[in-house]
Amino acid sequence: MENIVNSLEENLKDLYRKAIDADKHLNDLKKSGHGKFGSIFKESDLFTVKSDKFMPYLEETAEQILTLKNSDKDLTNAKDDIEVIVKKLHLLHKTIAELKNALK
């Protein structure tokens, strides 16, 4: 279980810098009159937070990883939690990459 949590944390660290850069680009777009949207993700079953920046989504995911790390669950009992976290990380990676490609 520790290896899985470490892997999730490493993935989160990788996303951190990308999310900061993406949020900077979104701020620049808004200043120039573009980027008029209410939230990054439309009605999503994965995230409870709604934001026009990536960092709140990353923070929500980080909280879930910390909760998982501090829980007494074994791998079998934590399977659903891990699955949701992996889906969130994947969606964040994918969406940030799509934004980066769109800005080229």
Task: Kindly describe this structure.
This protein is mainly α. Helices cover 67% and strands 0% of the residues. α1 runs parallel beside α3. It is elongated, with a radius of gyration of 15 Å. The model has no long low-confidence stretch (mean pLDDT 92).
- The total of beta strands comes to 0
The profile of the biggest β sheet is: none
The coarse silhouette is: elongated
Q: How large is the radius of gyration?
A: 15 Å
By secondary-structure content and strand pairing, the structural class works out as mainly alpha
Average pLDDT = 92
- The fraction of residues in strands falls at under 5%
Query: Cα distance, first to last residue?
Result: 39 Å
The low-confidence runs, each spanning 5 or more residues with pLDDT under 50, are none
Order of helices and strands: HHH
Number of helices: 3
Percent range for helical residues?
55-70%
Brief description of this entry?
It is built from 3 helices and no strands. The protein is an all-alpha fold and 104 residues long.
Write the layout of secondary structure elements.
Blueprint: H1 2-31, H2 55-70, H3 79-102
Helix pairs in contact: 1-2, 1-3, 2-3
Characteristics:
about 100 residues, mainly alpha, 3 helices, about 65% helix, about 0% strand, elongated
